Structure formats: C-alpha cells, structure tokens
Amino acid sequence: MDEELSVAISALAQECRSGAGIIPTPVGVFADRNYAQAHFDHVNEICDRLQVLANQALERRVTQAEFIVEQARLEAINAFSGGQSYASVQSAFARQGPPWV
Prior knowledge:
It is a single chain. By secondary structure, this protein is mainly α. It has four helices and no strands. It has helices spanning 3-18, 33-57, 64-76, 83-96.
C-alpha cells in the first residue's frame, strides 16, 4: 500500500542495526562481552520487527502507533538513531493522511 513508508522504515531499521555494536553505558562503566552481545541481539531483534512492519506497509496500512511501539523499545535501550531516516518515516506517515494512529 505504501512503498514510501516501507522504504523509510527499512532505512531506519538498517541505520539502527548498523549502530547495534555501540553499547551505551554510564561514564566509567565498561560492558562485558555478555552484556554487549545481549544488547546487540536485542537491537537486531527490534530491527527485525521494524523490517516486518516495512514489509507489511506494502500490503496494508501500517499505523504510526505500531511504529511507535518499536521506536519506544529502541529508545529504552538507547539504540534509536533518529536523524534523517526518522524524519523520512515521519514524513511518510504524514503523507498517509489521517488516521495517524
């Protein structure tokens, strides 16, 4: 249904996935191998769900509420990249028209 939204969500997922190896820790604290691997796996799991949403956008109307759930999961683990790819997703949702939720 919405190729623009599909492409935008895919790009955001890829951008987040590319940063999955960057492990957020408090200053002066270093992640051990298990923590780093768990973070990497968690980011990739969420990105997989974003890719599923991107694929579904080609077949049905994906709502912004569905996207926000995954966005919140990435934000909770400090792995949400934002930036231009996020702006593209928001723009695609805006062009979809109401309802945005």
